[in-house]
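User: Please predict the structure of the protein below. I'd like the answer in structure-token form so I can feed it into my own downstream comparison script.

Assistant: Understood. Taking the following sequence of 184 residues as input:
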Amino acid sequence: MLIPYDVRSNIQMLVDLLNTAPGISSADDRLASPENLSRFVRDHDFSGSVDATTLDVRVASVLRERFRVVLGEDVREVVAAVNLTFDEIRVQPRLVEHDHWGWHLHAAGDRSPLGERMASDIALVLTDLIRTGDLERLRACAGDDCSAALADFTRNHSKRFCDVRSCANRTHLAASRARRASGD
């Protein structure tokens, strides 16, 4: 499947949002302040105002917890989370073109609060993945002691490890040490 730039970007934003939770890449909540959230959305090319408020931080935290369901096996839980999100936001869909993005869909208005714009982007990208049967592109890292999320953009859906904690390197190194220890 050819994944358009805006879809790929929003998938990565969702994965990165999930990975900001305490205990994933840091002991701390990486989105605990408006400044951290503003930096996060700026790094993810959000258009419009990126000045986060404490309410936006709370919304981001709710979205992060709500959408951890994408790492499970039940598509119905993801659909329920998407529909709940659509119920909570003022959807104002329109095609837009800005920066280097080309034509794409925005579901929240340009003046909508930052948390609402994040929610709409997540709900839209998950809608795309569910409709195309590609929700399995989002999953948990296969590392033994890792709970990070990952986005698999490979053609054959073969990515197994996150980019957060060097899990692939640690797993391969452990396997190599085990082979040497057993004399193989």
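That's the full token string. Helices lie at 5-18, 34-43, 54-66, 75-88, 114-132, 167-182.
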